[in-house]
């Protein structure tokens, strides 16, 4: 079956996040736990210790210390939000860089694997099912992960339910992870 996939920024971000979670599921959990620990335990503890230590010194008035503690807390919160915003900005830049090649391609899905390339004939690819390390099924697409950190996205909206079932059968040898 031949399809001509397209992808929006939101679909690109969803696919990228799902592929990253599938490649290293523990990394996401570790980052979340570390961020929560940092914001909920370390930052308040450090602020409290700073206030307690300042009580020993009479030359540092407590209103200024309170202001310093609040500024420290605000800086920590700003750092977390900046990281999230930077991550979104990086994904947007990656999408815009790949956009001409992503939305101008065809894809043939067969019993042997996935082949395709640009509509003008450039950048051909041929991936047998055995070269994929993981299959991730998300709500709008199948993601087939390659060992190099790349993935192939098969858009479900271009497929009938029978075609989707056929792809599941053909790709049965690929280890799967369902994240619908």
**Tally of DSSP helical segments:** 4
Order of helices and strands: EHHHEEEEEEHE
* Rg calc: 24 Å
Shape: elongated
Average pLDDT works out at 83
Structure characterization notes:
With 180 residues, the protein is α+β, with helices and mostly antiparallel strands. The chain has 2 domains: 2-7 and 102-178, PH-domain like, CATH 2.30.29; 11-100, no CATH class. The chain has helices spanning 9-23, 25-54, 62-102, 161-170; strands spanning 2-3, 105-109, 113-118, 125-128, 134-138, 141-145, 151-155, 176-178. The longest helix is centred in the middle third of the chain and has 41 residues, at 62-102. The two termini are 24 Å apart. The model has no long low-confidence stretch (mean pLDDT 83).
What are the key terms here?
8 strands; 180 residues; PH-domain like; elongated; 4-stranded mixed sheet; alpha+beta; 19% strand; single chain; 4-stranded antiparallel sheet
